[in-house]
Design brief:
The structure is a single chain. By secondary structure, the protein is of the alpha+beta class. It is 20% helix and 25% strand. Among the domains are: 2-38; 39-110, no CATH class; 114-341, Immunoglobulin-like, CATH 2.60.40; 699-885, Immunoglobulin-like (Sandwich). The chain has a nine-stranded parallel beta sheet with strand order 28-27-26-25-21-20-19-30-29. An eight-stranded antiparallel beta sheet has the order 3-4-5-6-18-15-14-12. The protein has a six-stranded antiparallel beta sheet with strand order 31-32-33-38-35-36. α8 packs antiparallel against α9 (476-492) and α12 (625-635) runs parallel beside α13. The longest helix is centred in the middle third of the chain and has 17 residues, at 476-492. The protein binds 2-acetamido-2-deoxy-beta-D-glucopyranose (6 copies). Its main location: membrane.
Length: 886
């Protein structure tokens, strides 16, 4: 029978292990051939009934290896069920992610672990699991330990967190060194119910209030082999978000969709793993509850979504350490997640201004010309950047002394205009300079900061400067060396922030100058499904890099500038939000990329990295004027907004376009600058409470299923709804408005929506922005820099709800001192209107407008004094404007 232990599969895996990754295909082909030779007379036979009873949507893949044509023989050697799928679109071989229903899948009785002992602990329970028979992956671990913790969390102190850690008691395996808070107390009244199945081992987690089954791991066997760890769960919903970094819609497709996570340098492409790895998902349940799931593991992995709906985690190292967050609303799931991985840093104020960059400024003078031209046209700009052009032979901590002769002067001039300077740095350190001529490398060797190869020699790869060594940022010694380098460079060029790139890390060689060693780390028995057709640009061994370069840059900068550090990173990992923001990589100047940037921005807000945006106007390829205008309008609402361009294409800064386009871009940026108090306050809530900044509509309307898939619109906090134009040649846009009153931000015109799509006017110079009823937003007169505009008086815009109430808030401090909230050097003001005209101002403001005042008031009293006001009305709205002079 199928379940009988077949012959050992060591021959099979032995073949697979041979050679580098690109040989996997070939190895797999050999494998098929070998089996065919050995079993030439295998006859067709009917699968047992247990197999045919499993619905296709519930098949858990028993043969996930890529590029293998899975035959009945191969499958049955694993004691699995083999039934070709019914639809034509499915196929036995799955060269890329979405190829459908597996033909080879686990039978219900596939051997797995059983619980042999179970004890109570301080925080929960601990169990020992034992499996009787080895499976086909080498290094199968037959005894594992499961620790279940019913925790209260660090800051939130609620009862909505449950975590499980599965380890090998006989040896210590790699654990991700991020500091997850140690929690003090066991939860007495959790929001969940845990059911443990002992044989086979399985775990069911239910939401106590609704009975929804959030996790059920009995749906497929648990694997815990040295380089193959896998478990599956049913999902209560098809609405799954998160799981970065991928280029996809915001809502993931659960139809046999494999999302691979392995940080890698590749221009954003569908169905491939990109620069960052974030094993966290958020799920919307029936009825509007939400929960989250986080697997704390940094190895290359696959996450498989299937229509049951169900999900499989498949990783090739480390341990299984996971957390479930019970919400119950989507915003609190994110709060509970960042409570574990770390709260986002409070950005320095100018981080929220307009940033300008390109690859291909030939000289510091030409960089400077653009800055001057921006000033001449009165277009806001806070920060000027340089890409690798500024470096001498692309080497870190140098600048090209001829073409970039005036770089220090440019930086001084920026500072004189309250503007800032940011430049790029890569992790790769040139290793081929004559001894004594390049301190970073010589000193790095001396201090032993570089990553070594298997033989203990400095590993040499290749990046922009040619051959390079890679600093090991997980080592404290490296942080000191990195700081010393930055400090010396800062004495020459007084930069204000850092852009860290290529830190996946990227490598133009396969492995190193001496290739990739033939060991089981480089050639794991199972390779997660990244694209095999591209050059292999990262090493398996270097997973540990993730995140550390960001924290190193953050702490060095903190020491050098003694203000809040500004760091933007390409590669990211959970907890990175504590140190840096992120840009969405090397996107193209295409309308499609304009659209997908919204999903990228929303996903990173879910992942605790709210300071995020795509390259405005697109990076590679020539942009077009109309696209660039629309992108600048959307970009005005990215939490981080930077226009960045590739080399050898036309300039795309706002001054490069026609007066009409230039003016439209300027207006969009002025709008952003006027909303700075709102944005800054949202970042305060991200930093202190783990809130999102740019937010999907469904976060505010979790019961509105029509909002679950929306990724063409989004909100800033709970009050502002942004509806950008994402298509060429149109002067209107269709947008979804959840039930309620919505006010046009510019005119105060009001629409009442029943939860429907509305067509809005959208000429080239307009981005639609609506205020949700019941909100008050603080604004300021914009100016060329945030330094100037943040000195302007406040103007409150209030959008009254149907019963005449509204509220809003403002966080204010000096914008740059470290830890102002933590050390009580800030003001926090709540604006609230219970009934029109009986509110208190707690703040010295200049003016306020109120949308939705139904009748003209006869008198207005401010601090018991009559105050001047104006009132206007038309058929859709009324505006009441109060001018206050203090
Ligand atoms: C549970 O306690 C028993 C008796 O003290 C011990 O033998 C066993 O190893 C414990 N099991 C676990 C999983 O800690
Ligand atoms: C843990 O419980 C004790 C006793 O109830 C309480 O004093 C303490 O504050 C709790 N600690 C946390 C972190 O909740
Ligand atoms: C969990 O999954 C198993 C296997 O599919 C199923 O038999 C069981 O009913 C499920 N449990 C719950 C609570 O849904
Ligand atoms: C940059 O401008 C300065 C001042 O005009 C000039 O002295 C210098 O030669 C210029 N540098 C280059 C590389 O053109
Ligand atoms: C900036 O402020 C100055 C002085 O207050 C003012 O003259 C100028 O018009 C403002 N610039 C913009 C772009 O609003
Ligand atoms: C504008 C655009 O295409 N953005 C995509 C760029 O790439 C990131 C991943 O790095 C995606 O998440 C974005 O959607």
């Amino acid at each position: 029978s199928l379940l009988q232990r077949g012959p050992s599969c060591s021959v099979t895996t032995g073949l697979l292990v041979i050679g580098c990754l690109l040989l996997v295909l070939c190895g797999a082909w050999l494998l098929g051939a070998v089996f065919w030779l050995h079993n030439p007379n295998q006859q067709e036979h009917k699968p047992p009934e247990a197999c045919s009873l499993i619905p296709e949507a519930w098949r858990f893949d028993c043969y996930p290896e890529r590029g293998v044509v899975v035959t009945r023989e191969l499958c049955e050697a694993r004691n699995c069920c083999f039934i070709p799928a019914s639809t034509a679109s499915s196929s036995a071989s799955r060269p890329s992610g979405k190829n459908g229903i597996p033909w080879c899948f686990y039978p219900p009785e596939f051997p797995s672990y059983s619980v042999v002992s179970l004890n109570d602990t301080l925080l929960g329970q601990k169990a020992t699991l034992v499996k009787e028979v080895k499976t086909y992956y080498p290094g199968d671990i037959l005894t594992v330990e499961v620790e279940m913790r019913y925790e209260t969390d660090k800051r939130l102190l609620n009862h909505k967190l449950f975590s499980i850690k599965i380890t090998d008691p006989s040896s210590s395996r790699f654990e991700v060194p991020i500091s997850v808070p140690t929690v003090a107390n066991k939860t007495e009244s959790p929001d969940y119910i845990i059911e443990l199945s002992k044989q086979p081992f399985g775990l069911v987690v239910k939401r106590r209030s609704t009975g929804a089954v959030l996790l059920n791991t009995t749906v497929a066997p648990l694997f815990y082999a040295d380089q193959f760890l896998q478990f599956s769960t049913s999902l209560p919903t098809q609405f799954i978000y998160g799981l970065g970094e991928h280029r996809s819609t915001f809502l993931h497709d659960v139809h046999w969709n494999t999302l691979t996570m392995w940080a890698r340098d590749v221009p954003p492409t569908e169905q491939t793993n990109l620069y960052g790895a974030h094993p966290f998902y958020l799920a919307m349940e029936d009825g509007g509850n939400a929960h989250g799931f986080f697997l704390l593991n940094s190895n290359a992995m696959d996450v498989v979504l299937q229509p049951a709906p169900a999900l499989t985690w498949r990783t090739i190292g480390g341990i299984l350490d996971f957390y479930i967050f019970l919400g119950p609303d989507p915003g609190s799931v994110v709060q509970q997640y960042v409570d574990v991985v770390g709260y986002p840093a409070m950005p320095v104020y100018w981080a929220l201004g307009y940033h300008l960059c390109r690859w291909g400024y030939d000289t510091s003078n030409s960089t400077w010309e653009v800055v001057k031209s921006m000033r001449n046209y009165g277009i806001p700009q806070d920060v000027q950047w340089n890409d690798i052009d500024y470096m001498d032979k692309f080497m870190d901590f140098t600048y090209e002394s001829k073409k970039f002769d005036t770089l220090p002067d440019l930086v001084r001039d920026l500072h004189a205009h309250n503007q800032r300077y940011v430049m790029i740095l890569d992790p790769g350190i040139s290793s081929t300079q004559p001894e004594g001529s390049y301190w970073p490398f010589d000193e790095g060797v001396k201090r032993g900061v570089f990553i070594k190869d298997a033989e203990g020699k400095t590993l040499i790869g290749k990046v922009w400067p040619g051959l390079t060594a890679y600093p090991d940022f997980s080592d404290e010694v490296t942080h000191e060396w990195w700081y010393d380098n930055l400090k010396m460079f800062h004495n020459k060029v007084a930069f204000d922030g850092l852009w860290i790139d290529m830190n996946e890390p990227s490598n133009f060689l396969d492995g190193s100058t001496s290739g990739c060693p033939s060991n089981n780390l480089e050639n794991p028995p199972y390779t997660p499904g990244r694209r095999l057709d591209l050059q292999q640009r990262s090493h398996y061994k270097h997973t540990i890099h993730l995140g550390f370069m960001g924290s190193s840059a953050f702490s060095a900068l903190k020491r050098i500038v003694a203000k809040r550090p500004f760091v933007i990173s390409r590669s990211t990992f959970p907890s990175q939000g504590m140190y840096s923001g992120h840009w969405l990589g090397d996107n193209r100047s295409q309308w499609k990329d304009l659209y997908t940037s919204i999903a990228g921005m929303l996903t990173f807000n879910l992942l605790g990295i709210p300071l995020v945006g795509a390259d405005v106007c697109g990076f590679s390829e020539e942009t077009q004027e109309e696209l660039c205008v629309r992108w600048t309008q959307l970009g005005a609402f990215y939490p981080f907004t930077r226009n960045h361009n590739a080399i050898s294409v036309k300039p795309q800064d706002p001054t490069a376009f026609s007066p009409l386009a230039r003016t439209a871009m300027k207006e969009a940026l002025l709008l952003r600058y006027s909303l700075f108090p709102v944005l800054y306050t949202l970042f305060h809530h991200a930093h202190v409470h783990g809130h999102t900044v740019a937010r999907p509509i469904m976060f505010e309307f979790p019961k509105d299923v029509k909002a679950y898939g929306i990724d063409k619109q989004f909100m800033w906090g709970k009050s502002l709804l942004v509806t950008p134009v994402l298509d060429p040649g149109v002067d209107y846009v269709d947008g979804y408005f959840p039930e309620g009153l919505w006010y046009d931000y510019y005119t105060g015109d009001c629409v009442t929506s029943k939860g429907e799509e509305l067509r809005l006017n959208a000429p080239l110079d307009k981005i639609n922005l609506h205020l949700r009823e019941g909100s008050i937003v603080p604004t300021q007169a914009p100016n060329l820099t945030l330094w100037v505009s943040t000195g302007q008086p406040l103007h409150l815009v209030s959008a009254l709800s149907q019963d005449g109430s509204a509220s809003g808030d403002l966080f204010w401090d000096d914008g740059e001192t470290i830890d102002t909230y933590e050390t009580n050097q800030y003001a926090y003001i709540i604006f609230s209107i219970a009934q029109v005209l009986s509110f208190m101002f707690l703040f010295c403001l200049f003016s306020a407008s109120f949308y939705g005042v139904k009748e003209k008031p006869s008198r207005v009293l401010v601090n018991s004094q009559d105050a001047p006001f104006t009132y206007r009305t038309n058929k859709v709205s009324s505006e009441f404007l109060l001018l206050l002079f203090f």
